[in-house]
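Lab notebook, page 48
Experiment: co-folding of the full assembly
Goal: obtain a model of how the components sit together before planning crosslinking
Operator: M.T.
Materials (sequences as entered):
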Amino acid sequence: MASGGCALIRFALRRLLQAVPILVGIVTLIFLLLHLAPGDAATAYFNPNVSPEIIDRMRENLGLDRPIHEQYFRWLRAFFTGDFGYSFGQHRPVSAVLADALPNTLVLSGVSLVLIFVVGCAVGAVQAVRQYSKLDNVLTFTSLFVYSMPGFWLGLMLILAFSSPALPDALRLPISGVTSIGYEFMGPLGKLLDRARHLVLPSVALGIASAAGVARYMRGSMLEVIGQDYIRTARAKGLPERQVILKHALRNALVPIVSLLGLYVPLLFGGSVVIEVVFSWPGMGRALYNAILGRDYPVVMAASFFFGVLVLAANLVVDLLYAAVDPRIRRA
Amino acid sequence: MSAPMTGSRRSVRREAWRRFMRHRQAVLGLLLTVLLALTALMAPLVAPHDPDEQTDIVATRYQPPSVEHPMGTDRFGRDVFSRVVYGARISLMIGFLAVAIAISIGTAVGAIAGFLGGWLDTTLMRGVDLLLSFPRLVLLITLVALFEPSIALITLVLGLTGWMGTSRIVRGQVLTVREMEYVTAARVLGFGQARILVRHILPNVLTPVIVAATLGIGNTILAEAALSFLGLGVQPPTASWGNMVASGRDTMLNAWWITTFPGLAIVLTVMSFNLVGDGLRDALDPRHVV
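Observation: model returned without errors.
Model output:
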């Protein structure tokens, strides 16, 4: 066991080291993109009526007259020391903009991720156990339909449904923002409940398509496990069917599902841009979107960077989880 | 291809076709896809109105679905159904072209990496890892935001952000096929690298690429719709499903049809391609039986 833990730590360190060049790559790519675009930070600061001399001086101040490799290393250093510049849309440091937005995005994506895997695995497992039944067919078709839905449209349809006057007040859910008006005056439990209620619709809209994807995969994985000899052995031993399914089949079917996490996390963060816009959720996605509309490039670049880092971190966690579940990975 | 091969090749194809046609969902998907493609091609014949036609705005705007306007009218009094029909042109065209670009790049990169191996393989695949560490939509909106949005740009950018998965698939396939005996035979016969890659290896790795391309069209249409919904894709007045959903958003509670129907068109289209893709995968890969 001790050597197993040691191998796991070595594996974790190796993966962490492998992430470093990718991180440098992300920053480099963003730098290249910024320089590929027409115009630079100085022209974005000013309107075209400002005299060229002032823009030149501004360019000098920003270091934009320096050779490109010098700019690149300055940029690299700034990013790795957490200096993301100044947002000219919001008139405050980019780090402050992101510090406000990041927790909201993490909460929304976290809840969605749980939803994706719990709902996806449950639906897939039920389908596998009742293979070719009417329920299986209905669920297969439903998940295919849901899988093909654009998140923004589903979000709007949910808003439409939940603001219908026919709906009793008890079933109403908030359709925008993180908290209600008057949040400050609620008790601790009320605050928690209020936040939870605000999370329901956005997290469903964000996650349900991926949940359908997981369900499709889980059904296949579960069917494969159910066909294995050790399941027949468990049944032959006279174990109750419930125990065979829950203890033997489900556990083993879940192992390959872990690798799907790495597939869905980038989708989740990408989707959060659209969903945050639809539900006025003050997270990274909406910050990125507003920055793009306002040509607020420092925020655009820092937000893209953080999305890259988040995906990288998530992949690292997935690899570690996988190594923890399956000892063969560690040795590879 | 050499003559003796054709007989068995054809029967493999016929077998795959038979399996595909037995797959009820796949056939449904194929019918829907053909129907959609025909609708897009013959849009002027299918659409009852001109998609940009505005008559008396005050009298004709925000009309609920009726016989005259099966999907109602929007805030300019334009016929939503006709716009949905014309939107199919945009979505399908962007979908097909972007996937063609993505598949070409992905196949080339994957084939070169897998076939030549060595440092080139490592470099290319690390590059793929790098690009995959950005959420695609983030990469898309950042790229589009740096330039002026146009249909050509969106198609190109969708293609440029969609090839990484294909390159991984192709590389994996090439690695397997490269070691096969007929490739060794070709080498012994003294054929050049390029000829071996193009004539002997590539044709045998295309099956999963076809499946990935079909499923990729669905994903690309979804990505285009999201971009257009955010106002960074196809620009009004050109009708695209994404910008139609966005245009009805503010008046959704009073005129639900403007957002609802274009969205349904997206779901239907994406689902059709997914059905065909699933069917193709089951038909072309005998190991994969559902």
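Interpretation: Residues 2-37+84-330 of chain A form a domain with the MetI-like fold fold (CATH 1.10.3720.10).
Next step: discuss with group before ordering constructs.
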